[in-house]
Amino acid sequence: MYDLINAQTIFQYFGDDDKEMIREMIQIILDTNLHDLKQLDVHYDEKDFVTIKKKCHKAKPSMSYIGAVDTRKMLEAIEADLENSYPIYISLKQNIGVIEKELNDFLVKL
């Protein structure tokens, strides 16, 4: 049904008995992790690899919670080779756009 997220994984992590809690957790992921990842261009411009690493590392668990395994692998790849990771980041930003749409659709259907 979705290309990057997995609804079953979301229910597995957050449980399917408390839909309000699921909504809150998904909203936190949208507002913090995905928002922060979209803003990494500034840090790449400044060659601030410490911040890039921190933000990628912080977002990895959230990608697991929503079943975005390929996106988590991208974050790991960025962490593994920070100075050469900008091309991966370009792909990551495309994934983030898809994930945002899919999570918003998931919330509507929840």
Summarize it.
The chain is an all-alpha fold. It contains six helices and no strands. 25% of the residues are buried.
Model description:
- This protein is 79% helix and 0% strand.
- The chain has helices at residues 7-14, 19-38, 40-45, 49-65, 69-80, 86-109.
- Helix 2 (19-38) runs antiparallel to helix 6.
- The mean pLDDT is 97.
Highlighted features:
mainly alpha; 110 residues; elongated; 79% helix
Note the total helix count.
Answer: 6
What is the helix fraction of residues, given as a range? over 70%
Task: Kindly state the number of beta strands.
Answer: 0
Q: Spans of 5+ residues with little confidence (pLDDT < 50)?
A: none
Task: Name the average pLDDT.
Answer: 97
Structural class: mainly alpha
In sequence order, what are the helices and strands, one letter per element?
Answer: HHHHHH
What radius of gyration results from the CA coordinates? 14 Å
Q: What profile does the largest beta sheet have?
A: none
- Give the CA-CA distance, first to last residue: 14 Å
Shape: elongated
Strand content: under 5%
